[in-house]
Specification:
The structure is a single chain. This protein is elongated. The chain has five helices and two strands. The chain has a two-stranded antiparallel ribbon with strand order 1-2. By secondary structure, the chain is mainly alpha-helical. It has one domain. Helix 1 packs antiparallel against helix 3 and helix 1 runs antiparallel to helix 5.
Length: about 220
């Protein structure tokens, strides 16, 4: 009888140890899940802030300014085509305007580098974020750089060689057809950049709405 009690006691202790270890793992796992959840909320709020800053900049400044710049370039082209040099010279400073913007990628890049993008359970959102920041945002940067390079390598060099920049006046009128060709290309580059900015803006709004809905569900 004592032997039987002895084995039951050992069995009970063994089961207690197993349950204790399991419970410790369970508590630790739940604590880690809770930490991950809190960190994912912090990261999502940071992404919302980044997207909101981009949306405001695109809507209130970058897109309107670049659209106006493109219209000014088209007007300047018309003046050159009409050979209205007096008004064209007056509008020549239009060429020297350049406004570019790089989307805010700091939070996403940090998440990607640390592997913490996996903390966002919504796989569809993960894919959308990756497409936005590694697709559209990178394309936006590339289009801005292309415009800057063309501006620096083509337009500035032409103006330096064929215009009086102190008085903003073309001095080699026979070279104007070359400038017209360059302006046509340049206006196209600005147009492509504006199209990209509008795509980034729309995608940013959709992502912010998606993130806001997830954050509201966690409240």
């Amino acid at each position: 009888m004592k032997l039987r009690y002895h084995w039951f006691n050992h069995l009970f202790n063994f089961i207690g140890v197993i349950l204790g270890v399991y419970l410790a793992f369970y508590v630790d796992e739940k604590a880690e899940e809770n930490r991950d959840r809190k960190e994912s909320l912090v990261l999502m709020r940071s992404l919302v802030n980044d997207l909101s800053a981009d949306i405001e900049t695109y809507e209130e400044y970058q897109i309107p300014v670049n659209i106006q710049h493109q219209e000014n370039l088209d007007t300047l082209l018309e003046l050159f085509v009409k050979n209205d040099l007096e008004r064209a010279n007056a509008s020549l400073p239009t060429i020297l305007q350049l406004e570019n913007y790089t989307p805010t990628t700091s939070t996403f890049n940090s998440m990607k580098a640390s592997g913490k993008i996996s903390l966002i359970d919504d796989l569809t959102l993960q894919k959308k974020l990756t497409y936005h920041y590694e697709g559209l945002a990178e394309e936006s940067i590339a289009k801005g750089e292309l415009q800057v390079n063309f501006f620096t390598d083509e337009l500035l060099i032409w103006l330096s060689n064929h215009a009086d920049l102190m008085n903003m006046k073309i001095i080699d009128e026979e070279e104007i057809p070359i400038l017209i060709n360059k302006l046509i290309i340049y206006s196209s580059l600005v147009n492509q950049k504006v199209d990209n900015y509008e795509m980034v803006l729309e995608e940013s709004k959709q992502l912010r709405q998606h993130l806001d809905s997830l954050l509201e569900a966690e409240q």
